[in-house]
Design goal:
Elements: H1 15-26, E1 29-30, H2 42-53, H3 66-80, E2 95-98, H4 100-112, E3 118-123, H5 127-135, E4 139-144, H6 159-165, E5 170-176, H7 188-201, E6 204-208, E7 234-239, E8 252-255, H8 258-272, H9 277-289, H10 292-315, E9 320-321, E10 328-332, H11 341-352, E11 354-355, E12 357-358, E13 376-380, H12 385-396
Parallel strand pairs: 1-11, 3-4, 3-5, 5-6, 6-7
Antiparallel strand pairs: 2-8, 7-8, 9-10, 10-13, 12-13
Helix pairs in contact: 1-11, 2-9, 3-9, 4-5, 4-8, 10-12
Bound molecules: pyridoxal-5'-phosphate (PLP).
């Protein structure tokens, strides 16, 4: 009999995409999806257009063009490895150019996890992490983080809770720093604690560092790859969707020990073949030519956008958790009409024309327990100033 796989009915359309569709239908301002519609750096756009003109339109090597792998290896060496460490990143055997962070994560999970393997996720989590694991029958195991206490901003991770979640089936963990949706920039001490657990129980650490350049107020981004004795077990994953505002280009990378890289590359090839060739050239040029001032300005611009949205949410009576990184704000929507986060998001869209995402999309639903995100809404502030200001004007009208 014809039918979907046993898995298919459990893979629901993401609430983020659903809200974007609802927002388009009413011509609203979309703060739901992290589409990042800010300007693409000129050097990146020019190099991609040049690559199309110059005929770079066939498959690249499965691990990506050598120029970009070299630039990635240099970047990771500069940001993660201590001078005199003696062990650089080899662009010929330790770097894989991928179809975005999503493609990298999918390939890594395919290559490293078997059905039934348990993988730790920290809650609130990013839905693709959960569903990527589920789609290959690995078992996501949620470790809840503690939300900000009154007068504080950050989400706290209890390392003892992490330790208690490890079983004989645990094979890895996914660390998203800075995180979506909480905006948590994992401090070095916490990462060292996670690294100790990973070493003790022989776990892989898959990172998602897509927001590495979006850090505010003196917070410092630290990659688990940079910690002592972590290179062998860390799959460093990052990408350019957000940094260069090119979410539709599908460009990212991973760095891993050469023992794993062949298999990771094979699975990436099987699904994506390669990242789009001209866009690899565009990002290579960006990485080669844009220096510290570009990244510093990116963080400052977004810190300013963060303040604009924080102020509007406060005025609207939705107490915001001020994030240290990434570009989302989780705000308290208990006063917005609706019994669930999804109802509240739709009520807000109806009342103001501003789309946000139900917080419940980022928390587990446990039997007999109310989802911890039902009273939260997530707002994205990576928008052009005019759109962000229009959204804030509408939100303030709720006051
Ligand atoms: N990882 C996180 C935490 C994200 O928030 C997003 C996009 O919102 C992605 C990955 C998607 O990355 P990419 O476009 O490189 O696949």
């Amino acid at each position: 009999m014809l039918g979907l796989s046993e898995l298919a009915p459990r893979m629901l359309q993401s609430e983020i995409r659903a809200m974007s569709v609802a927002c388009d239908a009413v011509g609203g301002v979309n703060l739901a999806q992290g589409v990042c519609d800010t300007e693409v750096p000129e050097v990146v756009a020019e190099a991609a257009q040049g690559a199309i003109r110059d005929g770079h339109y066939i498959y690249t090597r499965l691990d990506g063009i050598s120029r970009w792998r070299r630039a990635i290896a240099e970047k990771v060496e500069a940001s993660c490895l201590r001078a005199g460490d003696g062990s650089g990143v080899d662009p010929e055997g330790e770097v894989l150019v991928t179809s975005g962070v999503s493609g990298a994560l999918h390939a890594a999970a395919m290559a490293l996890f078997d059905p039934g393997d348990e993988v730790l996720l920290f809650e609130p989590f990013y839905g693709y992490h959960l569903n990527t694991l589920r789609s290959m029958r690995a078992v996501p195991v949620m470790v809840p983080m503690d939300g900000p206490r009154l007068g504080q901003t950050g989400w706290a991770l209890d390392l003892e809770r992490v330790r208690a979640a490890v079983t004989s089936r645990t094979k890895g963990m996914i660390v998203n720093t800075p995180s979506n949706p909480a905006g948590k920039v994992f401090p070095r001490a916490e990462l060292e604690g996670l690294a100790a657990i990973a070493r003790e129980h022989d776990l892989f650490v898959l990172t998602d560092e897509i927001y590495e350049h979006f850090v505010y107020g003196g917070a410092e981004h630290v990659s688990p790859f940079a910690l002592p004795e972590m290179r062998e077990r860390t799959i460093l994953i990052s990408g350019f969707s957000k940094t260069f505002s090119v979410t539709g280009w599908r460009v990212g990378y991973l760095v891993a020990d050469r023992r794993w890289l062949g298999a990771l590359g094979y699975f990436h090839d099987l699904t994506y073949v390669c990242a789009p060739a001209p866009f690899q050239h565009g990002c290579a040029a960006g990485l080669e030519q844009l220096g510290r001032p570009f990244y510093a300005k990116l963080a400052l611009d977004h810190e300013r956008k963060r303040s604009i949205l924080v102020e509007a949410l406060e005025a609207a009576g939705m107490r915001p958790n001020v994030p240290d990184g990434a570009y989302y704000i989780l705000a308290d929507a208990s006063e917005v009409p609706g019994a669930t986060g999804a109802e509240k998001a739709r009520a807000l869209l109806k009342q103001t024309g501003v789309a946000a995402v139900a917080g419940s999309a980022f928390f587990a639903t446990r039997p007999g327990e109310r989802n911890h995100g039902e009273d939260l809404l997530r707002f994205c502030f990576a928008k052009k100033d005019a759109d962000l200001e229009e959204a804030c004007r509408r939100l303030r009208m709720m006051a």
